[in-house]
Amino acid sequence: MTLNGWAQIALFCGLVLLLTRPLGGYLDNVMAGRRTLLSPVLRPVERGFYRLAGIDPSEEQSWWVYARAMVVFHIVGFAFLYFLLRLQDLLPLNPQGMSAVAPDLAGNTAVSFLTNTNWQSYGGETTMSYLSQMAGLSVQNFLSAATGIALAVALVRGFARAESKGIGNFWADMVRVTLYVLLPFCLLLTVFYVWQGVPQNLSSYVEATTVEGAKQTIAQGPVASQLAIKMLGTNGGGFFNANSAHPYENPTALSNLVQMLSIFAIGAALTNLFGRAVGDERQGWAILAAMSVLFLAGVVVCYWAEAGGNPLIGALGVDNAAGNMEGKEVRFGAPLSALFAVITTAASCGAVNAMLDSFMPLGGMVPLINMLLGEIIIGGVGAGLYGMLLFAVLAIFLAGLMVGRTPEYVGKKIEAREVKFTMLAILCVPLAVLGFTALASVVPAGLAGPANAGPHGFSEILYAYTSAAANNGSAFGGLTANTVFYNGTLAVAMMVGRFAIIIPMLAVAGALAAKRKAAASAGTFPTHGPLFVGLLVGAVLIVGGLTFLPALALGPIVEHFALLAGTLF
Amino acid sequence: MLRHFRASVVMLLLMTVLLGIAYPLAMVGVAGAAFPGQAGGSLVEKDGKVVGSTLIGQSFTGEGYFHGRPSATTDTDPADSAKTVAAPYNAANSAGSNLGPTSKALIDRVKEDADRLGKGVPVDLVTTSGSGLDPHVSPAAAAWQIARVARARGLREIEVQALVNQYTEGRMYGLLGEPRINVLQLNLALDGLAKR
């Protein structure tokens, strides 16, 4: 570990904190439908969209109507994307003549991009036409991110409103985020990425004759425009197979920094939006503080593990000073690879700038734990905030049990209905992760997947289902996942991870919105101080630890001890 | 329900036209006008022919060239399309090795390279990159090869050393990333040196 490495980590954290408040204020204005800088240009577009779609943006929807609109939008989106992929060989913008995507892969990919997971059982440059990347995958990158933010804002309204039937309008929320937040930032980011060296063209792949006279085919495409939303929307699905490790998809340390900031910016800002909505910004900072504690712990462990290098390689007489470089790029080195890995899994992004499968056992365990904890450390755009708020409900309920009084959070009494739905949301992900991992670890179709033998092979399976159920999308990439078994089971895990959280979460939002605001009294437990932050971190760690420690012991932990003993598999 | 269905279909179509067609195509236009080199893939031409891209590593095996890192990329087996064969620096199929830290295949591969390259070889010269297309090596990895390159080209080590120094890029703004050397650019400069 170097001073320079720590300085880069500190710079990143400082920049995120600087962005949180201004961006939170902007998001708050947009979601409330207030006038912003971009309104003169975008308001007519927004109105046009509503008129053509037959929507009244001022109509307040109950949680159930909101959920139905969201689900129907997903079903239509799935059908469109599925058929686009199936028919890509007949459609334009396919200079490499990619064939139609197979049914199981198209289904898996459509679910993956709709649920903001971006798990990829395929390599982009060997599978997808430019039209599929642009009009299919990129569009869902925008819409799944917008949906996530809309849902988080709906839950925030549940806390903020009193005796209200409605939690907002799904269509208005989704359109506003897309037009006023995601698209304008992506325009700027695309130009920035191209400046740094990311291609943006529709040419066929370049045939080069190398200096030594060999043929090299170099993949091209409209990379920058897709990269911009892939990071900002915490989608993570790479244009290329190697994702942001590919020099075209992440050419410099500066593009790397901006990509990392893009992942966290909106998620962090939403904590501020929450604070503003409940009338006390300290409530938002408390949530962000709890996230930061967990984040920094992950960074320290992962950076330490990767910077130390692989002792088995050191024993061969190799100079290990640069750390564990298998699967890493020279321009990023161990510090930026470790930092990126922690960020991408703390948020539900899943883009990678190094191959996580080749991380040290404990280094690779950090991304795994980040996802298993429910991706509430900043989290996916929207998903992180509503995930963490559900944990806040649970933490405050546990605190209430300890002192024997009805718990309250930001003025709302937390009662049986909310806690039941919260537990439902929190328990569905472990069920999908552990259930499918157990299944894949015994059936032949599952055991055919891992590339590595021994405990690392088990880690590959565990990582896949964790990534799918947590809607992350990163992978221990050695797993051969493009099979009917994995495409099918992973798609189910992705749907459980999205809808089995969203729908109970919206029910909580509806129940909270209908409640009266309780006035704060001397007996109210303050939820903006270190005691609450500690309680929240504790609740996250206890629930995650109790659920997943046995599985981790079978994978990365036992591999770590095998490594120390010099055992190879 | 029908109301939601209509709204969904119309909204998806509008968004697809805006975000999936207009946005990327406009960006192709803007990028091509503002940064034509980068937008086109940062290609390098020599004598009118494309020899590669500054951002994409390529295979070097000759004694007189600096070598990049090992690459784990593959290609379809021409004899059997269901199988793959090793194809280092295949820029149409980026990939890492995905070998875990306790993998026997990894340690055997590294051992073979380390035995060939000698004791104390910098770790980036015996490990594959994440993309398999890493255009860079570390300054230590370049220094490791100076004697071989100088010998093969009949140059003095100090000349090659000077060229390596010239092509060493530091951290961006003195802070970001790691020091590195672009192997393709260095080798093209070497060829230029020989001609003078």
Automatic annotation (TrEMBL), chain A:
It is found in: Cell membrane. The chain crosses the membrane at residues 6-27, 65-85, 137-156, 177-195, 257-274, 286-306, 332-352, 359-378, 384-403, 424-447, 490-512, 532-554. It is a multi-pass membrane protein. Keywords: Cell membrane, Ion transport, Membrane, Potassium, Potassium transport, Transmembrane, Transmembrane helix, Transport. It comes from the Bacteria. Its main location: membrane. The system is composed of three essential subunits: KdpA, KdpB and KdpC. Part of the high-affinity ATP-driven potassium transport (or Kdp) system, which catalyzes the hydrolysis of ATP coupled with the electrogenic transport of potassium into the cytoplasm. This subunit binds the extracellular potassium ions and delivers the ions to the membrane domain of KdpB through an intramembrane tunnel. Belongs to the KdpA family. This is Potassium-transporting ATPase potassium-binding subunit.
UniProtKB/TrEMBL annotation, chain B:
It is found in: Cell membrane. The keyword Repeat does not apply. The keyword Disulfide bond does not apply. InterPro entries: KdpC (IPR003820). Keywords: ATP-binding, Cell membrane, Ion transport, Membrane, Nucleotide-binding, Potassium, Potassium transport, Transmembrane, Transmembrane helix, Transport. It is a single-pass membrane protein. It comes from the Bacteria. The system is composed of three essential subunits: KdpA, KdpB and KdpC. Belongs to the KdpC family. Part of the high-affinity ATP-driven potassium transport (or Kdp) system, which catalyzes the hydrolysis of ATP coupled with the electrogenic transport of potassium into the cytoplasm. This subunit acts as a catalytic chaperone that increases the ATP-binding affinity of the ATP-hydrolyzing subunit KdpB by the formation of a transient KdpB/KdpC/ATP ternary complex. This is Potassium-transporting ATPase KdpC subunit. The gene is kdpC.
